[in-house]
């Protein structure tokens, strides 16, 4: 930490001079929270920050660097993994500068996407995106006094980038990231720091450091803790509201939760990009010889595919909690595909079909509705709009049903392959991408997800 640092002075500078955009989009004074002050008060000069999402680490590091620039004789360097994050941080710094009181705002000599300079302060701040063929060259080109590395666990060549950056004088360096698999430079340095082996100090901020991560209890609601919840409550003095929030997030993210919202500095380094649904060997138990039962309710999920993708209709027997049929077709005219969908819907007397409306879905849904009416069918078609949130919710429901709810799937090799290839990968902007790898299909997964969504959520009273 710099010798000329004063905790009170920094907090006063932030509160009186800096403005940030809060989660609601409003501009408010920047008052450092508990997490942010804990970090700044414990900097050693070689610092690793392992964090949960959105606890304000990047913001306070940028404020710390800007504070130092305004004091003078400072050259900071910020290195990000993706252009989108680089732009976000650049906008944050511009907001700091533009909202300074006029008498406190030094003139900029250069102010562009990569560099800000303040001649009267003999200070500057640069920002760059690492990655690509030139990634290891970022950080070269002159001495710096402070380095901020953001989402370092996601850098393609962290060792090369930092080897170059650390040649630029003797900087104070802060490297922060959410975890991204038990491998790589950032993981190795974190493990060394935990073992007190090396030059780095590790600062770990689990999710409960963020006060907003809690859900109020309903009137009279009582939370009965599981064994692991009880251990967390006793060890970290968590509240029922925090446990309720944790349950909601775990339901949504499943195996991704420890990486998104870490609770332990070792266990959080799960493998990013793993199969979202995990081991389903006990779920693939149904043969394709089933016939409709008159007293059972059947629901469908429909994913329309284009070009090399498949159009897939999945049928779930809600009564028996099992998948009983899959129609998987492609390279056919839309009219023929709809005909085959209609035939399967008639065979199983589907109560409802949840059909993805994105892309060509909307057009085909309207045509299917007409064709169903022409053939006197009572099956309802309910459009499903796929967004990051709706997809995560539906995938979470299916995951829970397959692992804890007794739902069984057809024993098919193409289905097994797709479920293995369906992965959850978090980007540095905080969003989760749930999809198959670029060279794989996920049409069966999506249609199965939608068929369970229909069976679980679409009541007769709703779709009538």
Instruction: Tell me, briefly, the overall form.
Output: elongated
CATH topology tier name of the largest domain: Rossmann fold
Helix tally equals 15
Radius of gyration: 27 Å
Give a description of the structure.
With 464 residues, this protein is an alpha/beta fold. The protein has three domains: 199 residues, Rossmann fold, CATH 3.40.50; 64 residues, no CATH class; 180 residues, Nucleotidyltransferase, domain 5 (2-Layer Sandwich). The chain contains 15 helices and 18 strands. Strands 5-6-4-7-8-3-9 form a seven-stranded mixed β-sheet, sandwiched between helices. A five-stranded mixed β-sheet has the order 13-12-11-14-15. Strands 1-2 form a two-stranded antiparallel sheet. The chain is elongated and about 80 Å long. The N and C termini lie far apart (66 Å). The C terminus is likely disordered.
Primary descriptors:
464 residues; alpha/beta; Rossmann fold; Nucleotidyltransferase, domain 5; five-stranded mixed beta sheet
């Amino acid at each position: 930490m710099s010798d000329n640092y004063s905790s009170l002075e920094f907090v006063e500078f932030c509160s009186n001079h800096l403005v940030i955009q809060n989660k609601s989009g409003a501009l408010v004074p920047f008052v450092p929270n508990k997490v942010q002050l804990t970090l700044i008060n414990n900097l050693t000069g070689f610092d690793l920050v392992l964090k949960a999402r959105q606890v304000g680490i990047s913001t306070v590091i940028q404020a710390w660097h800007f504070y130092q620039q305004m004091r003078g004789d400072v050259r900071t360097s910020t290195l990000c993994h993706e252009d989108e994050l680089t732009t976000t941080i650049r906008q944050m710094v511009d907001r700091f500068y533009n909202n300074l009181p006029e008498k406190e705002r030094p003139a900029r000599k250069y102010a562009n996407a990569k560099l800000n300079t303040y001649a009267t302060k003999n200070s500057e701040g640069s920002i760059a995106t690492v990655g690509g063929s030139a990634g290891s060259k970022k950080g070269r080109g002159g001495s710096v006094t402070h380095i901020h590395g953001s989402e370092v666990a996601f850098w393609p060549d962290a060792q090369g980038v930092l080897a170059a950056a650390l040649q630029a004088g003797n900087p104070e360096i802060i490297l922060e990231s959410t975890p991204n698999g038990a491998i790589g430079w950032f993981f190795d340095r974190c493990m060394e720091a935990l073992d007190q082996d090396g030059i780095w100090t590790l600062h770990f901020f689990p999710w409960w450091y963020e006060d907003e991560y809690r859900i109020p209890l309903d009137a009279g609601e009582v939370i009965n803790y599981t064994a692991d919840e009880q251990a967390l409550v006793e060890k970290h003095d968590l509240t029922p509201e925090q446990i309720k929030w944790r349950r909601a997030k775990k339901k949504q993210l499943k195996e991704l939760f420890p990486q998104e919202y870490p609770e332990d500095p070792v266990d959080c380094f799960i493998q990013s990009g793993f199969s979202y649904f995990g081991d389903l060997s006990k779920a693939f138990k149904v043969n394709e010889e089933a016939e409709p039962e008159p007293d059972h309710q059947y629901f469908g999920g429909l994913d329309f595919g284009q070009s090399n993708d498949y159009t897939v209709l999945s049928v779930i027997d809600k009564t028996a909690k099992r998948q009983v049929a899959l129609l998987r077709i492609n390279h056919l005219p839309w009219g023929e595909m709809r005909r085959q969908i209609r035939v399967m819907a008639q065979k199983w007397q589907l109560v409802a079909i949840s059909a993805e409306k994105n892309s060509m879905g909307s057009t085909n849904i309207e045509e299917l509705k007409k064709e169903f009416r022409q053939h006197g069918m009572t099956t309802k078609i309910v459009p499903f709009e796929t967004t990051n949130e709706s997809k995560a919710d539906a995938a979470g429901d299916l995951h829970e049903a397959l692992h804890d709810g007794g739902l069984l799937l057809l024993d098919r090799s193409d289905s097994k392959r797709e479920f293995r290839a369906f992965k959850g990968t978090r980007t540095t902007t905080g969003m989760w991408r749930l999809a198959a790898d670029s060279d794989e299909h996920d049409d069966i997964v999506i249609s199965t997800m939608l068929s369970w969504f229909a069976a679980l959520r679409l009541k007769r009273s709703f779709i009538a």
